[in-house]
Design brief:
Length: 467
């Protein structure tokens, strides 16, 4: 691709569009990171372009929904092919790619986890979480209580927000059922003093296990051995929480406690699924077997709203979860399922399990080199191409949200320099203190584009500190 197209696209209606947006659009689904908000016109590969045709290297790719790059020809062609073949059909009827996609995911899970299971589809991540809550409650005799992690994010529908640790998503709306019990996630960079990351991980597991030692901890009837809690909702790597990677033995310890007390593990792969970490599912890195996997986002490379879940057979077979248990008009639509099937085929054919870790290691090395030159980078870490850089004050630890906010502003101004031309940088803000850059670049990003990213981040930090 040509980074700087010769044909300049200059639209003079940005001001009018912004005025109309302020007047006619709900702000309920929008967070404007800069003022005025940026309007983008087209995209290709790892880049999106504004109205003046300035390229912006995108390092968040629509919150990891566009794992395979903007304008991916193979996936775009599959979408066009399906539009001409069978663009839609009511969900009470069948079409080939729904069955083929479910079979592919279920057979993959059986090979990896040794469990038979089935897939159910919906139209968005939060909706798939809602469906999983139905499956869990149904299988656990209507139990409503769930465990979840501090820093976890599972969606903003009413039930999903009840298991999301941020109160601000519930404050004005309340929620159905009971709020989850939120437990500490082993955050290596912000662990207690005097502990190694592994010791902190073991401590978190031990504290969880202690909840079941006595009936007075409020989670277990010790006389019957029955827990009041049905499931634990986990992100193997926290997404919105700041791409926090726990020690590798953490989930094995947690799963032993869950299995002992008959509590299901529901793994939220909505942001980390489809090779973001170098595996189809990020939970594969941690050596445990989930009971339910929830997925979405990159399943269709952002070209169609399709999500879903896989659950083991005992939880989802037609006898226990019969027809009509849940429904959405557009679930398992042909456009989405044909894309999802192609995404999985493509991922294995292009060997993302090899290429993603290699690119991730190169990116992480660049971040660590950057860290040596900027003491405000307190921590860098990652798994595959899910990477993080924690922006701090000069002490390298105290969260510095203000500095990261300036970095975002400068990146979206599109005034950085590359070979004498203007260029921008798109970053995502995450973390418990909103001071973490969460990197989710295209899995097809080139090594040269990774080097460009590091160079632009160097410029960005230098300018933001002077500002």
């Amino acid at each position: 691709m040509t980074l700087f197209p010769k044909d300049t696209i200059i639209a003079n209606d940005d001001a009018q569009l912004l005025a109309d947006e302020a007047k006619y659009c709900s702000f309920g689904d929008t967070v404007h990171y800069v003022d005025p908000p940026k309007i983008f016109r087209h995209a290709e590969g790892s880049f999106i372009y504004d109205s003046a045709n300035v390229p912006f290297l995108d390092l968040q790719m629509w919150y990891s929904a566009v794992n395979f790059g903007y304008g991916n020809k193979r996936l775009n062609d599959k979408l066009k092919e399906q539009i001409d073949l069978l663009p839609q059909v009511a969900s009470q009827y069948l079409h080939p790619t729904k069955i083929e996609l479910a079979r592919t995911i279920a057979q993959d899970a059986e090979k990896k986890f040794g469990l038979k299971g089935r897939c159910h589809f919906n139209v968005g991540g939060a909706q798939a979480v809602e469906d999983s809550l139905k499956i869990v409650r149904n299988a656990c005799n209507g139990k409503q209580l769930m465990f979840a992690f501090e820093g976890g994010y599972h969606g903003r529908t009413l039930a999903a927000s009840a298991i999301t640790s941020s109160y601000r998503y519930r404050r004005r709306f309340g929620h159905f059922g009971d709020r989850a019990m939120f437990l500490p996630f082993p955050y290596p960079f912000r662990r207690p003093k005097g502990m190694t990351p592994e010791e902190y991980s073991d401590h978190c597991v031990h504290q969880f296990a202690r909840l079941f030692e006595s009936e007075y901890n409020g989670v277990l009837d010790t006389k019957t051995g029955q827990s009041e809690y049905a499931a634990f909702y986990v992100e193997p790597i926290q997404g919105t929480g700041g791409y926090v990677v726990p020690p590798m033995g953490f989930f094995q310890g947690m799963k032993k406690v869950l299995d002992k007390h008959g509590i299901l593990m529901v793994v939220d792969e909505i942001q980390m699924g489809f090779w973001r970490t170098g595996k189809l599912w990020s939970i594969e890195h941690f050596g445990v077997t989930p009971d339910v996997i929830v997925f979405g986002k990159a399943l269709t490379n952002g070209l169609n709203p399709l999500s879903g879940l896989w659950a083991r057979e005992e939880l989802i077979n037609p006898e226990i979860f019969p027809p009509g248990s849940t429904h959405s008009t557009f679930n398992s639509n042909p456009l989405g399922t044909s894309l999802g099937l192609e995404v999985i085929k493509m991922g294995y054919e292009l060997d993302y399990e090899t290429t993603v870790p290699a690119k991730g290691a190169h990116f992480l090395a660049g971040l660590r080199d950057l860290q040596k030159r900027h003491k405000e980078i307190g921590d860098v870490d990652g798994l595959g191409l899910a990477l993080r850089a924690e922006i701090c004050t000069e002490d390298g630890f105290t969260p510095n949200k203000a500095l990261l906010d300036r970095m975002v502003d400068i990146g979206l101004a599109g005034d950085l320099d590359h070979q004498g031309r203007k260029i921008g940088l798109v970053l995502d803000v995450g973390g418990w203190y909103k001071n973490v850059i969460t990197f989710a670049p295209s899995l097809d990003i080139s090594f040269e584009e990774i080097d460009l990213a590091i160079s632009l981040l160097d410029q960005l930090l230098t300018r933001a500190k002077k500002a």
